[in-house]
Hints:
Strand content: 35-45%
Largest sheet: 6 strands, antiparallel
Order of helices and strands: EEEEEEEHEHEH
Mean pLDDT: 73
Number of strands: 9
Number of helices: 3
Helix content: 25-40%
Amino acid sequence: MFSIGSISSSGPLETASVNGTGILTIADGLGYNLTANLTWNDISQDGTGSTLNVNGLINLTGVMYAGSNPDLMALAANVSDSDTLDFTFDPAVSLTQMATTAEQTTYSGSISSASVPDGGETAMLLGVALCAIGICRNRLIAG
């Protein structure tokens, strides 16, 4: 169970610590689950969007997986994992409301591992983005 701590505001941005622990479960679709102890650490909100574990702190411990999915096996083998969860309420729900009332919404999240390389995909995407910026810049200058 999680609880939202003291809320601070800076303009439209609200932030707070999150206390408590839970269990993260990811099903691999083949009958095996990855499980881990989960601590959220912090939450922030700006408008309708919110983010848990804003600073990407290490917050997964006791990660276990007995299946054969390579990504889940890599996650289970690494002890320095963190996850960030982004979610949106429409209409907006304040952190104060979230701290006192159960709310539901859709979400997206990512789990990253600092020591597992991505195989160069990040460098490739950065290169493609820089080329696209160069092409757009040349077209703007020529046009």
